[in-house]
Amino acid sequence: MSQYDSYYGSGGGGGGGGGFLQGGSPFSQTGSPGGTQRSEASMSMRPITTNQFQKTEQPHGDAPWSLEGIEIGHVTVVGQVISMQQHTTNHIYNIEDGFGRVEARHWVGTTGNTEAEIEKWSGIEEGIYVRVSGFLKSFGNKKYINASYMRPVTDFNEVDFHFLECATVTMMLERGTPHSARAGGQKTVGAGSSAYQVNNAMDTQDEYSSLAPLQQQIIRFLVSQDNKDGVHVGVIARALGKADLDAEKLSSALDALLDSGHLFNTIDENHFALSR
Amino acid sequence: MSEHLSPRVNSARLPNFVGKTVRLPCKVISFNGPSAKVQASDGGEVTVVLGAGMDIQDTFVEIVGTVTDPTTIKTMACINMGDKLDLKLTNDTIEMMYDPRFTKIFF
Predict the structure, then answer these.
(1) Could you tell me the pTM of the whole model?
(2) Residue ranges of chain A whose CB lies within 8 Å of a chain B CB
(3) In a domain, B44, yes or no
(4) In a domain, B104, yes or no
(5) DSSP code of residue A93
(6) Per the domain annotation, does B48 fall within a domain?
(7) Tell me, which fold does domain A19-274 have in CATH?
(8) Could you give the ipTM of this predicted complex?
(9) A198-242: pLDDT as tens digits
(10) Which residues in chain A have their CB less than 8 angstroms from residue B102's CB?
């Protein structure tokens, strides 16, 4: 869930036109060397299409990369390996997703454990679909992805997933999260645990607002507990404490939350914690 | 960006791409000598003309090739996509790509 939080977080900064001053930053070199300009976005991973990759820009050598005015850190792309060239120090992969082409470079031997690294990258062949992640780099006038991770796609629904995720994230960065009162507004989650008492839970508008009422109540109770080791299902049931709450409904709501990735089991299958 | 363009399509989109390169995620129905009949994600049947060394193994494949007429694709490459692919999801994704609200992300 943390990666999604990053999306939401960067949505606040970028969408609202806050932190990242595209025009101003090149001239503030004397004041703040790097540091203060680096936002949350530079540490987050954004799924992009190769077409979006073509549109990324870097105003000057030390500036953060941006895509349509929104700062961009790490990126992840899904596409087909069209060609690969293996040199001693680096491997070059040309990857297409149907909308353009990106070059991904992997510098060999950067992790210190070369054998494990070779093993990890050995599954990559020409013609297959891969997911590649890394940060943007340029050399001369050429942009490439400095790949830190690449693996073959084995479930091909991932290809569709990737395109849909690209669209979702782009929309979210432009317009803010669904249901957020202000476009690109602040992150309302965790604004204070008292806001998450079960009674007024339904008034809160955030990333969980689209869930079914019972699921929301469970989430908001767990947010208020803030217990990383997990909360027992019995405690959840007592906290929601409704007469009409039968065990079956509760367990199917919990299952749904597990399936959607909002929760995970901790010490055993009766303990639940929030994935965030 | 016309360079390296091979957009994903369903059968309904093929008439717009005659002479162009496309990617057609599809389900293989039957083989007929040097060609095969496939079902595109929107359910339409498409004939794909295979070349030498094309290796269709799986139930679902992605055909990369040139559209010769609205129901025929001359294959340049074939990617095996296993036997579990949600073609409806694929089709919805394809339709989204051509939705004016989203085209700037893809084209």
Answers:
(1) 0.67
(2) 49-52, 54, 80, 96, 98-101, 127-129, 154-157, 160, 163-164, 166-167, 170
(3) yes
(4) no
(5) E
(6) yes
(7) OB fold (Dihydrolipoamide Acetyltransferase, E2P) (2.40.50)
(8) 0.94
(9) 444 445 556 777 788 888 888 888 888 887 788 888 888 888 876
(10) 167
